[in-house]
Every structure is written in structure tokens, then in C-alpha cells.
Write a structure and sequence with these properties.
The protein contains 26 helices and no strands. It has 525 residues and is mostly helical. Among the domains are: 82 residues, no CATH class; 61 residues, no CATH class. Helix 25 packs across helix 26. This is Tetratricopeptide repeat protein.
Amino acid sequence: MAELHKDFLFVLIKSLTTSEKRQFRLYVNRLGINVDAKFLLLFSEIEKMKEYDETIIIQKKISTKQQLSNLKAHLYKQILVSLRMNPSHQNYRIQLREQLDFANILYQKGLYKQALKILDKTKHTALELDEKTIASEIIDLEKVIESQFITRSIEGRAEELIRQSTEISKQNHYTTELSNLSLKLYSEMLTHGYVKTDEERAEIMNIFNVQIRKINFDKLNFTEKLWYFKAHVWKNQLLQEYKYTLKYAFQWVDLFHQNQEMIMSHPVWYIKGNTYLLKILFLYGNIDMLEDRFRKFNEIVHSSSFAQNENVQSLIFLTHYNTLMNIHFVKGEFFSGTKIVPEIELKMDRLRDKIDEHHFMILYLKIAAMFFGSKKFKESIRYALKVIESKGNVQEDLLFHTRILILMAKYESGNDEDYDDFIKATLKFTKKMKKPDEFHFESIEFFKNLNNVAPTQQFESFRQFDKKLDLFSENEYYRRSLLYIDIHGWVQSKLRNVDVIEIIKGKVRYKRKFQIQVIIVNLNS
């Protein structure tokens, strides 16, 4: 995703492929525009720039400062028109709206029978694809035409249009209620984070119950069911009730598998559903089910029939590599996990303007954790510093746990040159957090004491902190704090004097044996 301070036209031009640039020039030539036209000169100049520089455009007299804003707006519009004509950007929504536009043109020319024929065919397709908003617009235009012009079938048509309009209106009401609820919960998750008190929990449940009690699930069609499952996933994410997040994430994804044509119609929501499902399966730690679902996901999103636009490809990239690294984490395969880092970074560079900073920072934290597990502590710190030095909008919890990873790496490497200063900086950062809790301060206190006690006393420090982590893991509001970085596994490895990889593999063996039944029970409950 482009940063807000970047010029939108510059970002759009830089996002164009060689094929799209060639098509734009062909489109301009078809318009019969002189090659020296100012907006084409502006396109060529911006295309050559590495960073947007308005002064160069003015110095080369492509435009005056006063005219530049209008010229850029005109160029921006022409590029979008050209892209709209590109087959790679065609999708069923654009095609449906194009047919609706054609019908409007025919209606304005007085060719109502031709307009009605196009509208009827387009409406049928829209209803098949569960695109009720477009279907509603089509019916509105049909009613306008039928009410103005006498046709032989007006009596039957009127009843049919009234019935369709009433039915779609009811369905749109359900969609509006559920989409509003989903958006509200998603907004709560981004702005306030996960619930940490009973009061916050009660507030979320009140928001949810007020809306959801109005919904009769049996009357929902595909789109309403999708919003219904989304609302449940986001509610349970907020409440940190992962067994129910898992249940509704499964239903979200399986809704698409039961309606295969909708995967092609709604590729973004198919990817998002899988993102949540794969993330929760990672938290459960059942590697067999995680790998099975990951394989199915890759089969579908890399099939020839799946959407191939840049937005979809950037989402596939995030889900694929986050999950791939998660699989390495669950298996304790840190050394092999670091081998995919160059590949990830190469693709990150290509997608930098299409993905927001926070998602990049999650990848950097995982890369840092991967290097930590492979005992390359200097590399771990290098990637972790990318996160805490980011100027973008990164969630506080992510920044805090990145700092904890750096402290772990500094301790392991014996590099305590600026250890105390980093502790002070982390404490200062924590005090500025919106909702710091006991876990945050206890973690800082542990690392502070660790550097102040004699080596013979460090075992006792680890033992005391392990007890506190046990208590935190039993508290539903602190549990998520232990999921960013497996600090508990690291502490236990010190107490048992074994490699942290052995702790992780032991957890995998346990979860393989017991957790598959738990997951199945949760899906059916």
C-alpha cells in the first residue's frame, strides 16, 4: 500500500507493468492525441523518475505550477481508463456494470426493448453471483423503463419486478446489518486491540448481540453467510477465544468450497478466510492439519482460473510466506527457514507500494525470530531493528515483542554493550503504550534483573519468571501476549538446559497426539 505522503500518480505509474505501459501508449494513439501532448510528456517524465520531483516537471516546462494539478488529474484518469480496458483487469463486477451502462445508453436512445433484454440477462448473472447491489440497480432501471413505456407483458413483468425488488431489499437489509457489525468489530480490533478486562469483554458482547439476534441464519444466502462468519471470526479474535475463531474460520473457508464459483467471484475474501484459518491452526500447533490446509490453499490460488491481479497477488504473498514461516516455527526448522529469507525480501521489494507497513513488519519479526532460532543472533537483531525503527503505523504489541526478542538475542549473544540502555528505552516505550499490562512490565523487570545478578543466580531468575509465565498463560487476557514470541519455550529451555528447538518439537509431539481431537470437537460444538 502506498504511503500517504507519496504522490498517487507517481505510485500508479510505477505500478504499471511493461504491457500496461505499452497499452496506455496505444490507447493514447487511438485517441489521435499528438505525441507531444502535455499529459503524455508528463507520463514519460514521471516514468523515468526514481522519486517524485515536481520541480523537474516545471523546469522542463511540461506544465506550469498552476496547471500541474489539473494535468496530473487528467493523466491519472486516462491511465485508469486504459487499465479498465486491459483484459487482465476485467472481472465480473466491471463486466456487469459495463452491461448496465450499455442498457442506460440504449434507454436514453429510446431503444427500450434492447435495453430491457440486456438488463434481464445481466440481472440473471448478477443474481447467480449474489451481487444484489448491482441487481437492485438493474431492477430500478427496469422499473423506470416499464413504467414509462407500454409493453405487451407489463402486467406479468410488474408483478415479477415487485417480487424481485422486495426480496432483494430484504436480503440487502441482512447484508447491511452483518457487514456493519463485521466492520465495527474489525475497527475495534485495529483501534483498541484485544480485550484485556471483563468490562471490555462485556462491551464487545453487547455490540455483537444487539446486531446478531436480529439475524435468522436459515434465511441467509452466500453473501450474508460470509458476513455472518466474518463477524464471528472477528468477535472471537477480539475475545481471544481461539477455538471459536477456528470454528468460524473453517466455516468461512468451507462456504467457498461448497460454492466453488464464488472463489473466482470473491478471491480476496477466500484468501482472507484462509489467512485466519491458517493463523489459528498455527496457534493450535497441529502441523498435520496446518500443512494439509496450506496445500489446499496453494492449489486453488495458483490455479489458472484464479484471479491474477496485483491486489490478489500481494494478499497471496502475505498468506503464503507467513504460513510457510509458521510451519518452520511449529516444526522447529529454523535453519531451513532462514533459507527462504532472500526470496521473501525480493518479493517484498516488488510489492512495497501495495502492502501496508504493519504487514511488512510482521514478516521482519518472523525473519528475526527465525534467525534467533538458528542461533544467528546478530542477524536476528538486524531484522528486529527494522521493526522498531519503522516510521510506519505499526501496532504497539508487535513493537514491544520485537524489543523482547532483541533482549533475548542480546542475552544469548553475550553482546551486552548497550543492554542496559536498551532496557531503559524499552521501559520508556512500554510506559507510553495505550494499554500496558503486568506481562509487559514483568518481562522488562526479568531482563533487567538478569543482567544484574551473578551467573550462578541466573537459573533462579529464569525459574521465578517461568512461574509468572505459567500464571500469565492461565489468564485468558494475557494468553495472547505469549503467542508473538515463544518466550516461555525459551525460558524452559534454559531451565532444562536443552536447545529451544527440543522444547518446540516436544510441543509438536504433544499436540499431534492430543490436539487433533480437540480441534474436531471445537468444529462440531
